[in-house]
From TrEMBL:
This is Zinc metalloprotease. One of its GO terms (biological process) is proteolysis. Residues 163-198 form the PDZ domain. Keywords: Hydrolase, Membrane, Metalloprotease, Protease, Transmembrane, Transmembrane helix, Zinc. Its main location: membrane. GO terms for cellular component: membrane.
Length: 416
């Protein structure tokens, strides 16, 4: 039930952000004097609406987004009343049209920035100094987290009947203990713990020195067996190795909370990293299509494959059910930032496509004036329709792939 509630809340948050996207278009258009005839949340049949001034506001039956109707977005719009011609959007200066068309993405960026700042002062943001590479992890002090069992395979999974009990647990070790030596070999960090264990065999007895609450102590246990690749070759051939049944508890905090003023700087740093990550994700989209197809046809789902709004909502539901509030907020932030960037791509029918055409017209008019030729006028959108249909087709197929993958083989972040 908590999962379903989380899914519903995340889907509602997405609907609100998309509705605010359209509100950004509407408010800026009205501010410049353009005529906006409709603003609706959702699509399909009208459930409820009212008119205020020259604009009809309302709710449609299918809550999958929203739209606003600005009169005369292109010179080829044929539903413009002659009385509204002076207020047609295409007649306005290019800078005003740019602001109106980019207002949707700016709204998404604003939502993301506000959410980042709130997270910075309340939940905390991911610590950039937290160890992320294998080399950094191995330099951490050998503070342990007990596993319930030792999984024989090299791939992690939940414990199953028949799995060996954790030797560390049998030795009465506890979460947070720091191992200082094994069989007399000093242990200064987690990497040295791994090396010391690889120097032993399954079934060997390990004499363990450790520190608990500042007090040194000793214990011993019989090591179990697992399968692992060589320490210096993670992609090498797996072989039986000794296992203590522990993981690492990093001493570096995973997140940092900031004061209201310092949070502005942290928000800027987080946003910069998010922008780089979003651009890299967009660049990887084409090469991820085969991985999506593999997931749909029964293969393992790559956690780095794109997700749809359905997948994001499912992950939001998982985060809510497991009280992972930072993950819930981070999903909302990432999705808004991605939509904001994606919508600015210079492709029709995206807002970025309209902006690109507006500035192309401006540049072309400037160039023709300099070379003494007549202004060629506005771009004929009708001639661009074949390219627009191709973009819509590719986008539709990609959306269908991601939704299907999210339904039949969803990404999960928490063990079931």
């Amino acid at each position: 039930m908590a999962n379903l509630l989380g899914v519903a809340l995340f889907a509602l948050a997405i609907l609100v952000s998309v509705s605010l996207h359209e509100a950004g278009h509407m408010l800026t258009a009205k501010a410049f004097g353009m005529k906006v005839t409709k603003y609706f949340v959702g699509f399909g049949p009208t459930v409820w609406s009212f008119r205020r001034g020259e604009t009809e506001y309302g709710i449609k039956g299918i809550p999958l987004g929203g739209f606003c109707k600005i009169v005369g977005m292109t010179p080829q719009d044929d539903d413009v009343d002659p009385a509204d011609e002076p207020r047609a959007m295409w007649r306005y200066p290019v800078w005003k049209r740019t602001i109106v068309m980019s207002a949707g993405s700016i709204t998404h960026f604003a939502l993301a920035l506000v959410a980042i700042w709130i997270a910075a002062v309340s939940l905390g943001l991911p610590n950039r100094d937290f160890p992320s590479t294998e080399a950094e992890i191995r330099q951490e002090p050998a503070v342990i987290a007990l596993s319930e069992c030792v999984v024989p395979e090299s791939s992690p999974r939940a414990c199953a009947p028949g799995d060996a009990a954790s030797p560390a647990a049998q030795a009465q070790l506890r979460d947070g203990d720091r191992i200082t030596s094994i069989n007399g070999t000093p242990i200064n960090n987690y990497g040295e713990l791994l090396v010391a264990l690889r120097g032993l065999k399954p079934g060997d007895t390990a004499q363990i020195d450790y520190v608990r609450d500042g007090q040194p102590a000793k214990t011993s246990t019989v090591l179990a067996q697992t399968q692992r690749p060589p320490l210096d070759d993670p992609k090498g051939t797996v072989a039986p190795v000794a296992a203590l049944g522990v993981g690492l508890v990093p001493t570096t905090p995973t997140r940092v909370t900031y004061g209201p003023v310092a949070a502005f700087g942290a928000t800027a740093d987080f946003t910069r990293e998010l922008a780089v990550g979003t651009v890299q994700a967009l660049q990887r989209l084409p090469q991820k299509v085969p991985a999506l197809w593999t997931a749909i046809t029964g293969g393992e789902r790559d956690v780095d494959t794109p997700i749809s709004v359905v997948g994001a909502s499912r992950l939001g539901g998982e985060a809510f059910a497991n009280k992972a509030w930072l993950l819930f907020v981070t999903l909302f932030i990432s999705l808004n930032f991605f939509i904001g960037v994606f919508n600015l791509l210079p492709l029709l029918p995206l807002d970025g496509g309209h902006i690109a055409i507006a500035w192309f017209e401006r540049a072309r008019s400037w160039l023709y004036a300099r070379i003494g030729r007549a202004d060629p006028g506005r771009v004929d959108y009708l001639k661009l329709m074949p390219f627009t249909y191709v973009v819509i087709l590719i986008g539709g197929v990609f959306t269908l792939l991601t939704i299907t993958a999210d339904v039949v083989n969803p990404i999960t972040l928490f063990p079931r």
